[in-house]
From TrEMBL:
SUPFAM superfamilies: Molybdenum cofactor biosynthesis protein C, MoaC. It catalyses: (8S)-3',8-cyclo-7,8-dihydroguanosine 5'-triphosphate = cyclic pyranopterin phosphate + diphosphate. Signal peptide: none annotated. It comes from Stutzerimonas kunmingensis. This is Cyclic pyranopterin monophosphate synthase. It holds the Pfam family MoaC. It comes from the Bacteria. Belongs to the MoaC family. It is an enzyme of class 4 (lyase). GO terms for biological process: Mo-molybdopterin cofactor biosynthetic process. The gene is moaC. Its EC number is 4.6.1.17. Residues 13-147 form the Molybdopterin cofactor biosynthesis C (MoaC) domain.
C-alpha cells in the first residue's frame, strides 16, 4: 500500500524501491484570463519585458525539473521530456499545457501540474504592471499514463 504516513503515522516519502520501472507520462493545464488588450500585446510581441510566452515556457520547464524542491514528499525525478505549450484561447485567455515523461518508479503528475502553474504565474508576473486583474484558473491534470494504475484521462 502506498501512503505518505510511516508506521508511526508521521508524514514520509513513499518508498518506491520495489516498484517496477515503467514509462510514465502526465499532461496538465492551466489558464490565465486577462484583458483582451493584454493578450493582444503579448501576441504582437509588444511587451517591454520581451517574449512572454517564451519566458513562461522556460519557467514551466525549470519548475518541472525542481518539483521535488517545491512540493514536500515528492521524489526527485530524471525527467526525459518536458513540453510546455502556450496559446491564445479566445480573446482574453492563455491556455497552458504541460507534459512530462520519464521511465521510472513513480508518476509525473506533480511535475506537469507544477510546470503549468509556474508558467501561469510567470505570465502574471510579467504582465501585472498592465493588468493586475488577471486570473489564474483551471489548474488540473488532464491525463496520466503508465505505472500500476495505468491510463487515466479527465472525463469528456
Amino acid at each position: 500500500m502506498l501512503t505518505h504516513l510511516d508506521s508511526q503515522g508521521r508524514a514520509s516519502m513513499v518508498d518506491v524501491t520495489d516498484k517496477a520501472v515503467t514509462a510514465r507520462e502526465a499532461v496538465a493545464e492551466a489558464r490565465v484570463r486577462m484583458l483582451p488588450q493584454t493578450l493582444q500585446m503579448i501576441q504582437q510581441g509588444g511587451h517591454p519585458k520581451g517574449d512572454v510566452f517564451a519566458v513562461a515556457r522556460i519557467a514551466g520547464i525549470q519548475a518541472a525539473k525542481k518539483t521535488y524542491e517545491l512540493i514536500p514528499l515528492c521524489h526527485p525525478l530524471l525527467l526525459t521530456s518536458i513540453k510546455v505549450e502556450l496559446q491564445a484561447d479566445g480573446e482574453d485567455c492563455v491556455l497552458i499545457r504541460a507534459a512530462c515523461k520519464l521511465a521510472g518508479q513513480t508518476g509525473v503528475e506533480m511535475e506537469a501540474l507544477t510546470a503549468a502553474s509556474v508558467a501561469a504565474l510567470t505570465i502574471y508576473d510579467m504582465c501585472k504592471a498592465v493588468d493586475r486583474g488577471m486570473v489564474i484558473e483551471g489548474v488540473r491534470l488532464l491525463e496520466k499514463l503508465g505505472g500500476k494504475s495505468g491510463h487515466w484521462q479527465v472525463p469528456a
